[in-house]
Amino acid sequence: MAKSDSSPPDSLDSLPADVECYCQLDGVIDLLSRQYAMQVICLVGAIGPARYGDIESAFDGVSSSTLSTRLSELVDAGYLSRHQHEEIPPRVEYELTASGAQLCERLQPLLEWAGQQGDLPS
User: Fold this and answer.
1) What is the DSSP track for 105-121?
2) What's the pLDDT band for 3 if we cut at 50, 70, 90?
3) What are the structural domains, with CATH classification, of the chain?
């Protein structure tokens, strides 16, 4: 059976020299595919510095452990900064870093495209 031009190559060795490898996306895609990761980036980008409660209230039914984990992962990855104010009661705010702002900007066309797709199966 003959291969069409759109078939995937049998191996990476058979790719033309001018084709980029997308392997460097692995870590980013792994993080962003986690529940609420892209939404947190976009929410914090939209509202600016956000407190935990602001973020939590934006997501119906998110568990505290899931949201805390996701925020920590995004801070560790360098997309969010976490600032704890020395107050009683304690106040923590999350804000996009320069990398996070760039990521948010690049996610916008994806969000627009997804919004145009209507109801997709989840």
Assistant:
1) HHHHHHHHHHHHT-S--
2) very low
3) 23-110 (1.10.10.10)
